[in-house]
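RETRY 2/3 - previous attempt timed out on the joint model. Re-submitting the same 1005-residue input unchanged.
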Amino acid sequence: MLKLVVVNLFRNPLRTFLTMASVAVALFLFCALGGILDTLQEAIKVGSESRLVTRNKISLVQWLPMAYQQRIAAVPGVKRVAVQQWFGGQDPADTKGFFAQFAVDDTWYGIYGKDFELAEASPAESPGAIPDGADPRLAAYFQEQTACVVGQKLMLKKGWKLGQTITLAGTIFPGSWPFTIRAVYHAKKKSFGDETLFFHYKYLNEKGLGGFGAVGTYVLELNDPSQASAITHAIDSQFENAAPATLTETEQAFQAGFVSMYGNIPFVLRVIGLAIVFSILLIAANTMMTSIRERTSEVGVLKTLGFTDGAVFGMVVTEAAVITLGGGLLGALGAKLLVSGASMPGGFFPPMSVYWGTVLTGIAIAVAIGAVSGLVPAVQASRLRIVDALRRVE
Amino acid sequence: MASVDVRNVVKVYRRQTEELRVLDGLTLAIPDGSFVALMGPSGSGKTTLLNLIGGVDQPTSGDLEVDGTNIARMNGAALARWRSRSIGYVFQLYNLIPVLTAQENVELPLLLVRMSAAERRKRAQTALGLVGLGDRLKHYPRQLSGGQEQRVAIARAIVSDPKVLLADEPTGDLDRKSAEEVLTLLERLNREFKKTIVMVTHDPHAAERATKQYHLDKGVLSN
Amino acid sequence: MAIPFVYNLRSVTNRPVSTATTAIGIGLTVSIFIGALALAAGFRASLVTTGSPDNAIVLRKGADSEISSGVTLDQVNILKADPAVAVGPDGRPRASAEMVIVVNKERLGQKGSSNVLLRGVDVAAADLRGGITLVAGRMFTPGTDEVIVAKRIAGRFANCNVGDRLRFEQRDFTVVGQFTAKGSAFESEIWGDAAVLMPALHREGYFQTFVFRMKDPSNFDRIKKALETDPRLQVQVQHERSFYAQQSEAFTVLITVIGTFITAIMAVGAVFGAANTMYATIGARTREIAMLSVLGFGSFSIFVAFVVESVIVAVIGGVVGCVLALPMNGITSSTTNFQSFSEMAFQFRITPQILLIGIAFAAVLGLVGGFFPALQASQQKLTRSLRA
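RETRY 2/3 succeeded.
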């Protein structure tokens, strides 16, 4: 019986191809949009549970004083406190090509060291002290104030080389900023991203802040992640009545804050996803019905040969499901292949993911739709009396 | 009126590697104003011959003159133009466009000729009146019986005043009574209006109404 | 030599289910297309109408948004005294030195928080920037901790009604009014007196923006050059209008790109669907087509007729798409404009022009989808299709 289904599919290859292609296209889109949603989810997952972020309570745009670092580090349960400052520079040769840059202090490498590994590093000229937790190959970087560490993908995109000195134009911190690339990293955790540039906070403080020591965010590592909410409370209450007040949250919540800036875009994407699913249903149903109508007399012949109503029903539904399965596989897997790893617009997000869950959901929807859309013609075909079928001449 | 002159016509169909000689040097002269029936078993080539006369198909070799015009070597576009002016065709089934009314169906051939809309309407109405369906102008084919549909088809076939009327099994799908109506109409067109009619048919009753009968078997003609 | 239009029109209505499904498929694609256009138009509209054509805006050199700019009090004083600045009837320069920061506030009714733009202005700003109209309450009194909130965002954050208190950095500010601003970017902002806000937020002596009315707007290029080359200043000068228009660029481009991507893919699917439908109907009408050919209608006429039929179905779909999209019009949405790092509220804007583009787009889909099927119809072999 399966053989008959296959033969029927090849009977009008153009139509089968077109239907499969429409389903594939619709499913590709469904999974790509799902991928955006998945990526937003992934972005929230960047955070480890044992890290917190402290910023000015008013907004990220306001500063925290350098003096807070010691005071936060003194809170029981806090293992390390590092400085992380958004730089916001641009490559003068490509102002539209957005990428992130952060000014970080030495402690930062102890906190984030495990999230990435070095692909390349300049050799150090002389042995020097490496901060706790940092990769020893970063020696050259730690010895040079204007050195920087760049993500592998960014290096490729820009065509930079290890040891090269690049210049960025500052927007928040005006002026021309030369940086020498002393190491290239590759993210071990996908969500860390391979397209960021890290440099010394000292450099930023001297050249951009006049030694003023203002900080955008502190990143904290905790001894015991389960203490997170207690420590959050301890820190914020310490500065509650000070100026400036702080707001501490888990790294996940901090990332989620960026995601939520997109407003109700996820909702819009889900609506579009629904619209797409609906249109697939229509296309598949239409094709099935048309093709069954054309083969009415054959259905009659099959029945005279002894195929039961149930068998005919099953065949039609199967045929519909196979077409949509084929299209679904193509589209969903195509989305996974092509979309994964691409950069998400907005720049704050890790490279795009399309979860296998999304792919499987997509395929399942396609098959279900196929089966459902085959229902009406299947019922019609199974109910058709032989006499009527043979009489109808198209 | 016209005469149809078929001279040494050969029609070969090629199917992959096989060659099928449907007509092999057929010669036939149909005088002006005659009503001819072509009979023969399935596959004898009678429909093929009809199609050749009607300019729907072209011979592999040989000549074909309809009212002095040799259509054997005309190209597609010219042939289409010639058809619209010179031939009226009636088929066994599905002559009419289902989404057009009887009148609109009959007007169709007139769209290919320079004519005002009013003139077209008048001619269509006249033709329909002639076949006895003047009261069914606005009916759709699904609202007409088989016999009525065929009569509309005949009206359409004559509306542009063609030289030759070709009919391919016009009564094949009709019941006795409707077949009668159609055949009577054809007879009248031939007798009163002097139309040359070539009719392919299985039905001996139908063939009897013609003034001359030919038998075609494996592409060979006999009386 | 043309096949009557009614033939194709009625054939379309003769197969209602097939036409409906294809039309809806195309309709959905058109709706999304219109949605994306409307979103971009709405967003662009709010920024394009911001500001006055006679105003110039001064930011620090190299800054790409107001937030990342910095202008000191000394520089402001130099600018205020510049002869290019128009002077009001009261003798004061028509200028506003402004503090621009964002404050992170929890959204009402929606998860998460947003960065709302807080603008500390000179009392002249409302008049200078034009279009500010109080729709509830009154203007804030200079020198006090009173603020006004744009009506458009008032509903989305807590404590934004007249009489409520907003807390920034240990100080309470009272909302004394709500305003509209002709649909411009200012409708996503909170305004207060710079002289009060700046010390409260530790920004004494450090403004972000300086806006002024040009005494002679036709002189803009010279004014720009003079200020930008002044060694005391280190600034960039732009037309107020162009600056805000350009702030919307990145987002508009983003929406357009994403919208185009989604629409393009759906369009491919819709075209396949349209082609499929046409192949099916042409397959079922082999005899009719043969009939037309026998009667003498040439292949070109047949080709055109079926392309037209496909376009008819598509245009029906286009109209369906427009109807589906219309409820979107006027819906207020907001998102973060990453360029200015602040929340931007805007309305979906569906113009008649956009609707027409939608229908034209549908027609193109019909044309492309119908092309090959129509070609097949026109090339149909007569003899084979006439065989009983």
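The mean pLDDT of chain C is 88. Closing ticket.
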